[in-house]
Design goal:
- By secondary structure, this protein is an alpha/beta fold.
- Helices cover about 45% and strands about 10% of the residues.
- The chain has a single domain, classed as Rossmann fold, CATH 3.40.50.
- It has twelve helices and ten strands.
- Strands 2-1-3-4-5-10 form a six-stranded mixed sheet. Strands 6-9 form a two-stranded parallel ribbon. A two-stranded antiparallel ribbon has the order 7-8.
- Helix 3 crosses helix 4, helix 3 runs parallel beside helix 7 and helix 7 packs parallel to helix 9.
- It is globular, with a radius of gyration of 21 Å.
- Bound molecules: 2-acetamido-2-deoxy-beta-D-glucopyranose (NAG) (4 copies).
- The site of one 2-acetamido-2-deoxy-beta-D-glucopyranose has 7 residues, from helix 7.
Protein backbone atom coordinates (compact mmCIF):
# COMPACT_ATOMS: atom_id res chain seq x y z
CA UNK A 1 0.00 0.00 0.00
CA UNK A 2 1.48 3.40 -0.97
CA UNK A 3 1.83 6.28 1.51
CA UNK A 4 -0.87 8.20 -0.31
CA UNK A 5 -3.23 5.27 0.07
CA UNK A 6 -2.35 5.05 3.76
CA UNK A 7 -3.07 8.74 4.17
CA UNK A 8 -6.40 8.32 2.50
CA UNK A 9 -7.14 5.31 4.69
CA UNK A 10 -6.28 7.17 7.90
CA UNK A 11 -8.20 10.20 6.82
CA UNK A 12 -11.21 8.02 6.07
CA UNK A 13 -11.01 6.38 9.49
CA UNK A 14 -10.59 9.76 11.17
CA UNK A 15 -13.48 11.30 9.25
CA UNK A 16 -15.59 8.25 10.12
CA UNK A 17 -14.83 8.64 13.82
CA UNK A 18 -15.59 12.34 13.70
CA UNK A 19 -18.83 11.70 11.91
CA UNK A 20 -19.94 9.04 14.34
CA UNK A 21 -19.05 11.30 17.29
CA UNK A 22 -21.17 14.04 15.79
CA UNK A 23 -24.05 11.65 15.28
CA UNK A 24 -23.81 10.47 18.88
CA UNK A 25 -24.03 14.06 20.03
CA UNK A 26 -27.37 14.15 18.32
CA UNK A 27 -30.41 14.04 20.56
CA UNK A 28 -31.41 10.58 19.36
CA UNK A 29 -28.86 7.84 19.71
CA UNK A 30 -27.07 6.37 16.77
CA UNK A 31 -27.99 2.84 17.88
CA UNK A 32 -29.86 0.51 15.60
CA UNK A 33 -33.44 0.19 16.84
CA UNK A 34 -35.21 -3.10 17.61
CA UNK A 35 -38.88 -3.59 16.74
CA UNK A 36 -40.63 -6.73 17.93
CA UNK A 37 -43.80 -8.33 16.57
CA UNK A 38 -45.69 -11.55 17.07
CA UNK A 39 -46.99 -13.83 19.81
CA UNK A 40 -46.09 -14.99 23.33
CA UNK A 41 -42.55 -15.87 22.27
CA UNK A 42 -42.02 -12.12 21.91
CA UNK A 43 -44.69 -10.54 24.17
CA UNK A 44 -43.00 -8.44 26.88
CA UNK A 45 -46.27 -7.31 28.46
CA UNK A 46 -48.59 -6.11 25.68
CA UNK A 47 -51.44 -8.25 27.01
CA UNK A 48 -51.23 -6.49 30.41
CA UNK A 49 -52.81 -3.53 28.65
CA UNK A 50 -55.69 -5.21 26.83
CA UNK A 51 -58.90 -6.61 28.21
CA UNK A 52 -58.31 -10.34 27.93
CA UNK A 53 -58.56 -13.35 30.26
CA UNK A 54 -55.65 -14.90 32.19
CA UNK A 55 -55.36 -17.55 29.47
CA UNK A 56 -53.48 -14.94 27.40
CA UNK A 57 -51.56 -13.35 30.26
CA UNK A 58 -48.43 -13.82 32.31
CA UNK A 59 -48.90 -11.00 34.80
CA UNK A 60 -49.12 -13.20 37.87
CA UNK A 61 -46.71 -15.29 39.89
CA UNK A 62 -44.66 -17.45 39.25
CA UNK A 63 -44.16 -15.82 35.82
CA UNK A 64 -41.07 -13.61 35.92
CA UNK A 65 -39.69 -15.26 39.07
CA UNK A 66 -36.20 -16.03 37.77
CA UNK A 67 -34.84 -12.76 36.46
CA UNK A 68 -37.22 -9.92 37.17
CA UNK A 69 -38.49 -11.36 40.49
CA UNK A 70 -41.96 -10.08 39.67
CA UNK A 71 -44.47 -10.86 36.91
CA UNK A 72 -43.95 -8.56 33.91
CA UNK A 73 -46.42 -10.13 31.51
CA UNK A 74 -43.76 -12.24 29.82
CA UNK A 75 -45.16 -15.78 29.75
CA UNK A 76 -41.98 -17.46 30.98
CA UNK A 77 -39.89 -17.51 34.15
CA UNK A 78 -37.51 -14.77 33.01
CA UNK A 79 -36.36 -13.07 29.84
CA UNK A 80 -37.43 -13.67 26.27
CA UNK A 81 -35.23 -13.96 23.17
CA UNK A 82 -35.83 -10.30 22.31
CA UNK A 83 -34.61 -9.24 25.77
CA UNK A 84 -31.28 -11.00 25.20
CA UNK A 85 -31.02 -9.62 21.65
CA UNK A 86 -31.57 -6.09 23.02
CA UNK A 87 -28.76 -6.72 25.52
CA UNK A 88 -26.36 -8.01 22.83
CA UNK A 89 -27.20 -4.99 20.67
CA UNK A 90 -26.51 -2.73 23.69
CA UNK A 91 -30.07 -1.48 23.77
CA UNK A 92 -32.29 -1.15 26.84
CA UNK A 93 -35.10 -3.69 27.32
CA UNK A 94 -37.63 -2.78 24.64
CA UNK A 95 -41.02 -1.99 26.26
CA UNK A 96 -44.48 -2.86 24.93
CA UNK A 97 -45.87 -0.27 22.54
CA UNK A 98 -49.06 -0.19 24.65
CA UNK A 99 -47.22 0.52 27.90
CA UNK A 100 -48.03 4.05 29.11
CA UNK A 101 -45.00 6.21 28.53
CA UNK A 102 -43.83 9.71 28.04
CA UNK A 103 -43.42 10.24 24.33
CA UNK A 104 -39.70 9.58 24.27
CA UNK A 105 -38.37 7.03 21.76
CA UNK A 106 -36.40 4.37 23.62
CA UNK A 107 -34.66 2.41 20.88
CA UNK A 108 -37.58 0.39 19.61
CA UNK A 109 -41.03 -0.92 20.48
CA UNK A 110 -42.64 -4.27 21.14
CA UNK A 111 -46.02 -4.97 19.51
CA UNK A 112 -46.15 -8.73 20.19
CA UNK A 113 -49.23 -10.13 21.90
CA UNK A 114 -49.51 -13.59 23.49
CA UNK A 115 -52.02 -15.71 21.59
CA UNK A 116 -51.75 -13.63 18.41
CA UNK A 117 -51.87 -15.39 15.08
CA UNK A 118 -51.36 -14.37 11.48
CA UNK A 119 -55.06 -14.97 10.84
CA UNK A 120 -57.53 -12.51 12.36
CA UNK A 121 -59.81 -15.44 13.20
CA UNK A 122 -57.29 -16.84 15.70
CA UNK A 123 -58.58 -15.77 19.16
CA UNK A 124 -60.40 -12.73 17.73
CA UNK A 125 -61.02 -10.00 20.29
CA UNK A 126 -58.63 -11.52 22.83
CA UNK A 127 -55.27 -10.56 21.33
CA UNK A 128 -53.61 -7.90 19.21
CA UNK A 129 -53.46 -9.78 15.92
CA UNK A 130 -50.56 -9.42 13.48
CA UNK A 131 -52.36 -6.99 11.15
CA UNK A 132 -53.27 -4.73 14.05
CA UNK A 133 -49.63 -4.81 15.19
CA UNK A 134 -48.68 -3.48 11.75
CA UNK A 135 -51.24 -0.65 12.14
CA UNK A 136 -49.71 0.25 15.50
CA UNK A 137 -46.25 0.30 13.94
CA UNK A 138 -47.53 2.61 11.19
CA UNK A 139 -48.85 5.06 13.73
CA UNK A 140 -45.61 4.90 15.74
CA UNK A 141 -43.64 5.82 12.62
CA UNK A 142 -46.06 8.64 11.80
CA UNK A 143 -45.43 9.97 15.29
CA UNK A 144 -41.64 9.63 14.89
CA UNK A 145 -41.80 11.61 11.64
CA UNK A 146 -43.68 14.43 13.37
CA UNK A 147 -41.30 14.52 16.32
CA UNK A 148 -37.90 13.87 14.75
CA UNK A 149 -38.47 14.89 11.15
CA UNK A 150 -38.76 12.65 8.11
CA UNK A 151 -35.07 12.07 7.57
CA UNK A 152 -34.26 10.91 11.07
CA UNK A 153 -37.42 8.83 11.35
CA UNK A 154 -36.68 7.14 8.04
CA UNK A 155 -33.15 6.34 9.17
CA UNK A 156 -34.39 4.75 12.41
CA UNK A 157 -36.92 2.66 10.47
CA UNK A 158 -34.63 1.55 7.63
CA UNK A 159 -31.66 0.68 9.85
CA UNK A 160 -33.83 -1.00 12.48
CA UNK A 161 -34.08 -4.75 12.99
CA UNK A 162 -37.53 -6.37 13.08
CA UNK A 163 -37.95 -9.58 15.11
CA UNK A 164 -41.11 -11.47 14.25
CA UNK A 165 -42.58 -14.65 15.75
CA UNK A 166 -45.99 -15.56 14.37
CA UNK A 167 -48.04 -18.51 13.15
CA UNK A 168 -47.88 -21.08 15.94
CA UNK A 169 -51.21 -19.99 17.45
CA UNK A 170 -53.00 -20.35 14.11
CA UNK A 171 -51.95 -23.99 14.18
CA UNK A 172 -52.18 -24.84 17.91
CA UNK A 173 -55.64 -23.30 18.20
CA UNK A 174 -56.89 -25.36 15.28
CA UNK A 175 -55.26 -28.65 16.33
CA UNK A 176 -56.55 -28.35 19.92
CA UNK A 177 -59.89 -26.63 19.48
CA UNK A 178 -61.08 -27.20 15.93
CA UNK A 179 -59.38 -30.25 14.39
CA UNK A 180 -62.53 -30.92 12.35
CA UNK A 181 -61.56 -27.94 10.17
CA UNK A 182 -59.13 -30.24 8.37
CA UNK A 183 -62.04 -32.29 7.06
CA UNK A 184 -63.05 -29.32 4.89
CA UNK A 185 -59.76 -27.48 4.41
CA UNK A 186 -56.57 -29.31 3.44
CA UNK A 187 -53.53 -28.80 5.63
CA UNK A 188 -51.68 -27.48 2.58
CA UNK A 189 -54.32 -24.81 2.01
CA UNK A 190 -54.42 -23.85 5.67
CA UNK A 191 -50.64 -23.47 5.81
CA UNK A 192 -50.80 -21.51 2.55
CA UNK A 193 -53.28 -19.13 4.17
CA UNK A 194 -51.17 -18.66 7.31
CA UNK A 195 -47.93 -18.13 5.38
CA UNK A 196 -49.74 -15.90 2.86
CA UNK A 197 -50.98 -13.66 5.66
CA UNK A 198 -47.54 -13.56 7.30
CA UNK A 199 -46.06 -12.55 3.97
CA UNK A 200 -48.65 -9.78 3.51
CA UNK A 201 -47.82 -8.23 6.89
CA UNK A 202 -44.04 -8.57 6.41
CA UNK A 203 -44.50 -6.71 3.14
CA UNK A 204 -46.56 -4.09 4.99
CA UNK A 205 -43.74 -3.59 7.50
CA UNK A 206 -41.32 -3.33 4.57
CA UNK A 207 -43.51 -0.69 2.94
CA UNK A 208 -43.19 1.50 6.03
CA UNK A 209 -39.42 1.34 5.42
CA UNK A 210 -38.19 -1.73 7.33
CA UNK A 211 -35.45 -3.74 5.63
CA UNK A 212 -33.90 -6.17 8.13
CA UNK A 213 -35.97 -8.99 9.55
CA UNK A 214 -35.20 -11.61 12.23
CA UNK A 215 -37.44 -14.64 11.70
CA UNK A 216 -37.82 -18.23 12.94
CA UNK A 217 -38.88 -21.54 11.46
CA UNK A 218 -41.98 -23.08 13.07
CA UNK A 219 -41.17 -24.80 16.35
CA UNK A 220 -42.26 -28.43 16.79
CA UNK A 221 -45.48 -27.41 18.54
CA UNK A 222 -46.81 -30.97 18.32
CA UNK A 223 -44.44 -31.74 21.21
CA UNK A 224 -45.57 -28.93 23.53
CA UNK A 225 -46.63 -30.43 26.88
CA UNK A 226 -50.21 -29.25 26.29
CA UNK A 227 -50.34 -31.09 22.96
CA UNK A 228 -48.75 -34.24 24.44
CA UNK A 229 -51.51 -34.19 27.06
CA UNK A 230 -54.09 -33.91 24.29
CA UNK A 231 -52.75 -36.88 22.30
CA UNK A 232 -53.52 -39.03 25.34
CA UNK A 233 -50.42 -41.21 25.33
CA UNK A 234 -47.70 -38.62 25.61
CA UNK A 235 -46.41 -38.77 22.08
CA UNK A 236 -46.11 -35.71 19.89
CA UNK A 237 -49.14 -35.00 17.72
CA UNK A 238 -48.75 -36.34 14.22
CA UNK A 239 -51.13 -33.83 12.62
CA UNK A 240 -49.20 -31.01 14.30
CA UNK A 241 -45.98 -32.44 12.97
CA UNK A 242 -47.45 -32.52 9.48
CA UNK A 243 -48.49 -28.85 9.73
CA UNK A 244 -45.06 -27.92 11.06
CA UNK A 245 -43.32 -29.62 8.16
CA UNK A 246 -45.59 -27.95 5.60
CA UNK A 247 -45.01 -24.56 7.22
CA UNK A 248 -41.27 -25.09 7.26
CA UNK A 249 -41.29 -25.72 3.52
CA UNK A 250 -43.64 -22.88 2.61
CA UNK A 251 -42.27 -20.13 4.87
CA UNK A 252 -38.60 -20.14 3.73
CA UNK A 253 -39.80 -20.31 0.11
CA UNK A 254 -41.93 -17.23 0.73
CA UNK A 255 -38.94 -15.41 2.21
CA UNK A 256 -36.88 -16.16 -0.87
CA UNK A 257 -39.68 -14.69 -2.98
CA UNK A 258 -39.92 -11.56 -0.84
CA UNK A 259 -36.15 -11.13 -1.05
CA UNK A 260 -36.15 -11.25 -4.83
CA UNK A 261 -39.24 -9.06 -5.20
CA UNK A 262 -38.56 -6.36 -2.57
CA UNK A 263 -35.41 -4.38 -3.08
CA UNK A 264 -33.16 -4.32 0.00
CA UNK A 265 -35.25 -6.90 1.93
CA UNK A 266 -32.81 -8.84 4.14
CA UNK A 267 -33.58 -11.51 6.69
CA UNK A 268 -32.14 -13.87 9.22
CA UNK A 269 -33.94 -17.20 9.61
CA UNK A 270 -33.26 -19.09 12.83
CA UNK A 271 -34.04 -22.81 12.64
CA UNK A 272 -36.05 -23.00 15.83
CA UNK A 273 -37.57 -26.27 14.67
CA UNK A 274 -34.28 -28.15 14.75
CA UNK A 275 -32.90 -26.36 17.79
CA UNK A 276 -35.97 -27.11 19.91
CA UNK A 277 -36.33 -30.67 18.63
CA UNK A 278 -32.74 -31.40 19.68
CA UNK A 279 -33.34 -30.06 23.17
CA UNK A 280 -36.55 -32.05 23.55
CA UNK A 281 -34.79 -35.24 22.45
CA UNK A 282 -31.42 -34.76 24.11
CA UNK A 283 -32.01 -32.33 26.99
CA UNK A 284 -28.84 -33.22 28.91
CA UNK A 285 -26.67 -32.35 25.93
CA UNK A 286 -27.81 -28.74 26.41
CA UNK A 287 -27.72 -28.68 30.21
CA UNK A 288 -31.40 -29.51 30.83
CA UNK A 289 -32.82 -32.33 32.96
CA UNK A 290 -36.20 -32.51 31.24
CA UNK A 291 -37.22 -31.80 27.67
CA UNK A 292 -40.74 -33.16 27.85
CA UNK A 293 -42.49 -31.95 30.99
CA UNK A 294 -43.37 -28.36 31.88
CA UNK A 295 -41.73 -26.88 34.99
CA UNK A 296 -45.04 -25.30 35.93
CA UNK A 297 -48.47 -26.85 35.39
CA UNK A 298 -50.53 -29.90 36.32
CA UNK A 299 -51.50 -33.28 35.02
CA UNK A 300 -49.36 -35.51 32.80
CA UNK A 301 -46.30 -33.67 31.36
CA UNK A 302 -47.49 -30.56 33.24
CA UNK A 303 -49.65 -30.28 30.13
CA UNK A 304 -52.57 -28.63 31.86
CA UNK A 305 -52.23 -24.89 31.33
CA UNK A 306 -52.73 -24.07 34.99
CA UNK A 307 -49.40 -22.45 35.91
CA UNK A 308 -50.08 -19.69 38.44
CA UNK A 309 -53.54 -20.99 39.33
CA UNK A 310 -55.36 -18.15 37.55
CA UNK A 311 -56.80 -19.98 34.55
CA UNK A 312 -59.66 -21.85 36.15
CA UNK A 313 -57.73 -24.70 37.75
CA UNK A 314 -56.13 -23.45 40.96
CA UNK A 315 -53.86 -26.41 41.67
CA UNK A 316 -50.53 -26.60 39.94
CA UNK A 317 -47.01 -27.67 40.69
CA UNK A 318 -43.86 -25.63 40.19
CA UNK A 319 -40.38 -27.07 39.81
CA UNK A 320 -37.60 -25.71 42.00
CA UNK A 321 -35.25 -24.81 39.15
CA UNK A 322 -36.81 -23.70 35.83
CA UNK A 323 -33.36 -23.75 34.19
CA UNK A 324 -33.53 -27.56 34.27
CA UNK A 325 -36.57 -27.52 31.97
CA UNK A 326 -36.88 -26.81 28.27
CA UNK A 327 -40.53 -25.80 28.87
CA UNK A 328 -41.57 -23.42 31.62
CA UNK A 329 -45.31 -24.01 31.29
CA UNK A 330 -47.39 -26.26 29.09
CA UNK A 331 -47.18 -23.85 26.13
CA UNK A 332 -44.00 -21.83 26.61
CA UNK A 333 -40.25 -22.16 26.81
CA UNK A 334 -38.05 -21.44 29.83
CA UNK A 335 -35.70 -18.48 30.01
CA UNK A 336 -32.74 -20.81 29.63
CA UNK A 337 -34.09 -22.15 26.34
CA UNK A 338 -34.73 -18.60 25.14
CA UNK A 339 -31.20 -17.63 26.21
CA UNK A 340 -29.64 -20.45 24.19
CA UNK A 341 -31.80 -19.56 21.18
CA UNK A 342 -30.94 -15.87 21.46
CA UNK A 343 -27.24 -16.67 21.21
CA UNK A 344 -27.85 -18.78 18.10
CA UNK A 345 -29.95 -16.00 16.59
CA UNK A 346 -27.30 -13.40 17.41
CA UNK A 347 -24.13 -15.07 16.20
CA UNK A 348 -25.07 -18.54 15.03
CA UNK A 349 -24.13 -19.68 11.55
CA UNK A 350 -25.65 -21.64 8.68
CA UNK A 351 -27.58 -23.93 8.64
CA UNK A 352 -28.92 -22.94 12.12
CA UNK A 353 -29.14 -19.22 11.35
CA UNK A 354 -29.08 -18.02 7.75
CA UNK A 355 -28.45 -16.30 5.41
CA UNK A 356 -27.44 -13.66 8.00
CA UNK A 357 -27.40 -13.68 11.77
CA UNK A 358 -28.78 -10.75 13.74
CA UNK A 359 -25.35 -9.49 14.72
CA UNK A 360 -24.62 -8.96 11.03
CA UNK A 361 -27.97 -7.24 10.49
CA UNK A 362 -27.37 -4.94 13.48
CA UNK A 363 -23.78 -4.08 12.68
CA UNK A 364 -24.08 -3.08 9.07
CA UNK A 365 -26.37 -0.42 7.74
CA UNK A 366 -26.37 -2.34 4.51
CA UNK A 367 -25.35 -5.98 4.64
C1 LIG B 1 -55.30 -14.50 4.68
O1 LIG B 1 -56.24 -15.17 5.47
C2 LIG B 1 -57.57 -15.07 4.99
C3 LIG B 1 -58.43 -15.72 6.05
O2 LIG B 1 -58.41 -14.90 7.18
C4 LIG B 1 -57.66 -15.74 3.64
O3 LIG B 1 -58.97 -15.63 3.12
C5 LIG B 1 -56.68 -15.06 2.69
O4 LIG B 1 -56.67 -15.74 1.46
C6 LIG B 1 -55.29 -15.08 3.28
N1 LIG B 1 -54.40 -14.28 2.44
C7 LIG B 1 -53.37 -14.78 1.78
C8 LIG B 1 -52.55 -13.81 0.99
O5 LIG B 1 -53.09 -15.97 1.82
C1 LIG C 1 -50.37 -42.41 20.59
O1 LIG C 1 -51.68 -42.08 20.14
C2 LIG C 1 -51.74 -41.66 18.78
C3 LIG C 1 -53.19 -41.29 18.51
O2 LIG C 1 -53.55 -40.23 19.35
C4 LIG C 1 -51.26 -42.79 17.89
O3 LIG C 1 -51.27 -42.36 16.55
C5 LIG C 1 -49.84 -43.17 18.30
O4 LIG C 1 -49.40 -44.28 17.56
C6 LIG C 1 -49.76 -43.52 19.77
N1 LIG C 1 -48.36 -43.69 20.13
C7 LIG C 1 -47.98 -44.64 20.98
C8 LIG C 1 -46.50 -44.69 21.27
O5 LIG C 1 -48.74 -45.42 21.49
C1 LIG D 1 -56.92 -30.03 33.71
O1 LIG D 1 -57.60 -28.85 34.05
C2 LIG D 1 -59.00 -28.94 33.98
C3 LIG D 1 -59.57 -27.57 34.26
O2 LIG D 1 -59.14 -26.69 33.29
C4 LIG D 1 -59.49 -30.00 34.97
O3 LIG D 1 -60.89 -30.15 34.85
C5 LIG D 1 -58.78 -31.32 34.65
O4 LIG D 1 -59.12 -32.28 35.64
C6 LIG D 1 -57.29 -31.17 34.61
N1 LIG D 1 -56.69 -32.39 34.15
C7 LIG D 1 -55.61 -32.90 34.67
C8 LIG D 1 -55.14 -34.17 34.04
O5 LIG D 1 -55.02 -32.39 35.60
C1 LIG E 1 -22.09 -15.12 20.64
O1 LIG E 1 -22.74 -14.11 21.38
C2 LIG E 1 -22.86 -14.40 22.76
C3 LIG E 1 -23.68 -13.29 23.36
O2 LIG E 1 -23.11 -12.03 23.12
C4 LIG E 1 -21.47 -14.52 23.38
O3 LIG E 1 -21.62 -14.87 24.74
C5 LIG E 1 -20.68 -15.56 22.64
O4 LIG E 1 -19.37 -15.59 23.12
C6 LIG E 1 -20.66 -15.28 21.15
N1 LIG E 1 -20.02 -16.37 20.44
C7 LIG E 1 -19.14 -16.17 19.51
C8 LIG E 1 -18.59 -17.39 18.87
O5 LIG E 1 -18.79 -15.05 19.16
Amino acid sequence: MSTTNLHILFFTIFAGLLLSTLCNMDQTQNDVALFIFGDALNDAGTNNYINTPAFFKGNFSPYGETFFHYPTGRITDGRLMADFIAEYAKLPLIPPYLQPKNDEFVGGANFASGGAGALPETYPGYVVDFKTQLKQFESLVKNLREKLGDEKAERIVSEGVYMVSIGVNDYVNTVLNNPALFQSVSMEDYVGMVVGNISTVLEGIYKVGARKFGLFTMLPFGCLPIVRLATGNGSCSTSATELTELHNEAFPATLTKLESRLQGFKYSLFDMYTSLTERIQYPSKYGFKDGKTACCGSGPYGGNYSCGGMRGEREYSLCSNPAEYVFFDSFHLSERTYHQFAQLIWNGSSPTTKPYNLEALFKHGNV
